[in-house]
# Entry
Amino acid sequence: MTDPPITQLLRRYGEGDQEAFRQLLPAVYEELHGIALKKVGPQSGQTLSPTVLVHEAYLKLFSAGNPIRLEDRPHFLAVAARAMRHVLVDQARARTAQKRGGNQPFVTLNTSAHGHEAKSEEVLRLDRALEELATKDPVLFQIVELRFFGGLQQSEIAEIIGKSERTVKREWAVARAWLARELRADEAGPR
Amino acid sequence: MTASWDRIKEVFTQARELDNESRDSFLQSELGNDPEAISEVQSLLDSDREGHSLIDEPTFEKEIQSARNAAALNPPEPVPSTLGPYRIERLIGQGGMGRVFLATQLEPIRRKVALKLLNTSIAGRELERRFEAERQVLASLDHPGIARIYDGGVVGDQPYFSMEFVDGVPLREFCSRNDLDLKERILLVAKTCDAVQHAHRNGIIHRDLKPSNILVRDVDGEPVVKVIDFGVAKVVPTESTSSVDLSLHTEAGQLLGTPEYMSPEQVDPSGRTIDTRSDIYSLGVVLYELVTGQLPFARPTGDPVGFLELQRRILKDAPPQASEVGDTIQELDWILQRAMNKSPDDRYASADEFAGDLRRFLKNEPLVAGPETSRYRARKFIQRNRAAVAAAAAIVVLLVGGVAASSWFAFQANRERAAAQVRVQQMTAVYDFLLEDLITAPNPFVNAKDIRVLEVLESATAAIDDRDLAPETEAATRYALGSSLSNLSQNEAARVQLERALSLLGEHGDPDLRLDIRHKLGASYLNDDPEKGVEILDEVVTERRERNGPDAFDTLDADLERAQAMDQLDFDKGLAEMQRVVQDIRRAFGPEHEHTLAATVRLADTMGRHPSHFKEAENLLRETLGTYASRHPQDDYRLVSVKDKLAYNLLRQGQELDYAEQLFRESADSFRRILGPDHEVTLNASHNLAACLFALGRPADAEVIVRELWEQVRESANESLPLLSVLVNIHLGRDEFSVADSLLRTHVPDRDPDAGDLLTTYYARLRITHGVVLKELDRVDESIEALQEGIALLGSVHGRTDWHVQVSVRNLCRTYAGVGRHEEAFAELQKNIDYLLEDLGPSDTGTQPAILLMAELHRDLSDWERAESTLVRYEEMLLETEGFDEKILAVVRDHLETTREARRAASLP
# Structure
């Protein structure tokens, strides 16, 4: 009996196999997306709150079925961050589509009882800005992604991208300023 | 731009470290030859300063972090060996925020403590706030069932607090280890409720109650309960905690807890507000687990997560009955259903109430909780049929209240206790019957959209026969039904029930119940056969006086009823009687007693039937309004309905219309809140408000209200009637008779013979209005038909000498005369004059206009002889009447003079 595919791929990725990352992503995405779809299918008229999705996803990915070695954890978190972003963005797209024209009843996303509202519009705006950043500066993009969608600490990010914590901190400052500017421009109107 | 992105980043990073003044020169020196690059860096610096909420307050970053923590992805922190005065012994617990250690405090006193340390590796300001909040929460509680806090603070950069070390065992283990029986387990949950109640009373919701947070310790053979871990507690405002820290929220803390014990509102993604009743639910789950040995909703075996499935089940599914799962009894099911109800409103209102039921259960006493099914079904039914059920429920309460009051009298009279108990049993049977058959019967009403009370009662009547009731119980039930029918003016049907109830009871049946029934029976004759009504009520009053005394409310109530029946026969005499009875009630109970006020309002209602008493009625209503207003909240039904009555009275008198407008507005608003916007009483108040605005000469304001309401209710035949009449009047005011006619033809439904008094009144008034419209359109035959129908209906509700009826009769007679049908006019008018003389006598402002019209019609035909003799005879009648109204006489003499002059003028060549 071999290891489950995610664990195998993770191990290869941890050993420096970049191809494994590309294969890992769809596997993790499928896993996350599966959770989102299975629990609240598109026909249910409900959307999954990020809170629930995130908890469910992490618990699922890190459950006994996917034993992850301590040293593989940062890499896995990188993959999970990417997959998480895709799932959230896809969900947000589906929701705004519903809101605009579909006849699905729109259910707001807010789930946490204390007002951390994750609005689909916001997810999409952030993603648009991130896409642009990805072409301009892939490293900045990765830092933001890991931080926002992976919930990673600076030290973990540094380990993943192979740079010092100080560099991560500096690069983050640039990314933050750049994103803030782009988001503000996006608010001013589509270019 | 020649500078590369990397170069821009570099300059930005360096410039960022500088203060504002030196930035410009720095940029110049670095990128002096590249203005584009300077402005790029400049704009990045600007947005660096401004930031953006999406980045600085990212929506899911925190959630993702907490999820990772939940997934235990953080490496364990090293355990310190000492902290300040504490020597750390071992880890005893681990939570979302930090870890709890058993520690020994070395000074100032040596003792064992539980030391809670904040997990600094993941702690942000938010976690620190929560940690501090938990300390505050514990410090505000002082209860033997809650672990006490000793000390707290920060050593180095390590926040901590120490609290009472509970050398106990988690609840579940304690039960199994000591092999506790059902009663002992229930008692432990009751004790937990006591501690939780203390927290709730101090405005603190625990939010993570579960067996592992409830420690039990044996103290001298007595198990003592301690509730621990207020780490995700929430503080809500109470009277005693004025400075409320609402930031004591947990971030994703709820989800870090144990979802199996969470209430539906806790797991609900739509984020409902969580209050103390959420803890009641969790305590319910704890009880369920302790008595059945399993969780009500467990995750599938082998699935370590499945939160979403669990969430769905907590939100939607009913847990398996405890009595089916474990070896318990049904009453425990009721308690669990109450505690674990999906709707917080249907749970125990407090932990005390929950504990109370548990202790009652242990002592085999009746519970607050009852079988859920009928309660649940009743609620559902009520939601669907709000108006009808509100009325039915009011009746039920009245009836049950009435029967209960009688049993109280029974005690008072020191009669046999057994008899009183029979009464209570009857009451219970009646209540059950009404509740089950009237309110919760599954068929045929449950799916009916707009069910009427009457239909419910009719079905209930049929249902009695199917029940095998003891004669006394059946009598009580039929009495309840008969009363309800009588309240709905279904007098004949009511009498059938009441008579049967009497014969079931027999001569030797409970005399009080017999009197109650005969009271209602007499009242049912009020309109149909007042003489018979008075006769029956006379006997009831006499017997009640003997049994209960002259000042007993039952006696006086029947007396008031009797007076009201009398005024159907002789208004003045009846009114005088009513005034006397109201005085008696006032004397017996005091001027401000509810009985007195209610009777006064009834008296004012009766007075309001005749213009000559409008002023007296007004004064009574003002007085009552004052008392009610000082005593009841704004939306109290009694207060609101007196406001409405006073406003209507003023409107009819045409006095203080500004005040009337204000009263109508207030009462309409209150009715809207109490009864709903579609209720006929609400609509009636709005309608009257519009009428008032008309009277104030503000037709435009009136029209706004009317059109709004009309749009709201036009589809609903019955509810639209009051508004229709105003709308029609708006068109009448503009001489738009065809429009009015078409509105009336389109929107007046066929008459519903079962409609209540109010709707019948509107229907009748609309028919009369239609008669007026048709007359204007020269469609006289149709006009007469409409007027006749309207008058007959209005008379059937308000009596043949009602003011509005009489106005309409005179209108009808004028219509007859207008097309030369004088014989019919005279016949109709004479008939009414006879009624008026009989009911009101000659000296009444109601009688006078009819007689003057009679003279006028004769005069129009130049029948001077009859015109004059009509007036002369009336003058004689007046003079023969004791205490006649001088003003009426003066008007009659004036008319007589005019007639004689006209006669003289006509006889001149």
Remarks:
- Chain B has five domains: 5-51, 62-164, 169-369, 376-610, 829-909.
